[in-house]
Amino acid sequence: MKKFFKNKKRLLFICLIVMVSLTACSSPRGSDGKTKVNEIITSETFEVQKKNVNVTEIPEEMQAEYENLSDDDYITIEATSFGDAMNTGWFNGLIVWPIAQLINWIAGKTDAGFGIIGATCLIQLLVFAFTVKSQVSSQRMQMLQPELQKIQNKYAGKTDDRSRMMQAQEMQALYKKNNISPFGSILVMFIQLPILMGMYYATMRASSIVVGSFGGIDLSMTPLAGLQNGQISYIIIFVLMVVFNFLSYKIPQWLQKHEKKKQHIKEKKYAQPKQSGGMMGNMNMMMYMSTAMIAILAFSWPLAMSFYWLVSSVFRVVQNLAVHKFFISKKTA
């Protein structure tokens, strides 16, 4: 069982499969990029023009209700109750509905953009409160990569049971000495994945996003549509999202180097992690692949999701700096 949980790639794959099954591979948006009218989550009754929603890729019995309306006619959407959300699945009821209603509530006092900013910061703070120990362990784990690599090199090529047992014991002793839980990042992954998926659906289904904007920017459009229309603001948000997403992964490594430099730690060649392989190599590969994948997907996301990812990435950058300053640096001082 421990070997299974140590394989993060396998665990991540299973988490993704679980999340896809939870969401039933359904999309709240139609092929025209507009939110399906029956998927909108609202805290109170409101009206939306037919041209701003999708009414063709919904159940047939509902299509007849809207087929005689012109594009400029308004459709009345009733408030979405918790019971309504639960009837479509517990994932929608327990995760998507609360996030969408939080966005709506904050947006009702400001605008759609601040709704996303406020909801993102509150959710990230809540997640951080529950996973702070795990995230500290994750950063300390990165600080220990050279020592872990040294142990791995020591037993490289030795496949007998005794060598494997001694390697495991030395690694466990290193974890214990530095107060690290090797499974800390797994807890963060399990908590963040459902929230990430929930936020993805909430930004497409929240009524404040469907009809709202941020500083005049329509958050329901995609960066690709913004580029085609020559709207530079969409590209600025997209580029900032990619940059800060990359920084959120890279900063812990930079902080690690800074900490070693500050402590005048000089590593011998055999103790340095190999960039082409090993733990550090895998981390870098996942970082680049993740950033590239997000950049590709974000072109067809509604800008609201890109905006959420930007805010979330900025939060993670600040969080990494705070964890390093108040937990890592003090520990090593």
Automatic annotation (TrEMBL):
UniProt keyword annotations, A-Z: Cell membrane, Chaperone, Membrane, Protein transport, Signal, Transmembrane, Transmembrane helix, Transport
Superkingdom assignment: Bacteria
InterPro entries linked to this entry: YidC/ALB3/OXA1/COX18, YidC/Oxa/ALB_C, YidC_ALB_C
Spans traversing the lipid bilayer: 112-132, 180-202, 232-252, 288-311
Annotated signal sequence range: 1-26
Organism, as annotated: Amedibacillus dolichus
Stated name of the protein: Membrane protein insertase YidC
Topology in the lipid bilayer: Multi-pass membrane protein
Primary location: membrane
Subcellular location field: Cell membrane; Membrane
Pfam families, per the entry: 60KD_IMP
Annotated family: Belongs to the OXA1/ALB3/YidC family.
Membrane insertase YidC/Oxa/ALB C-terminal domain segment(s): 113-324
Gene (name only): yidC
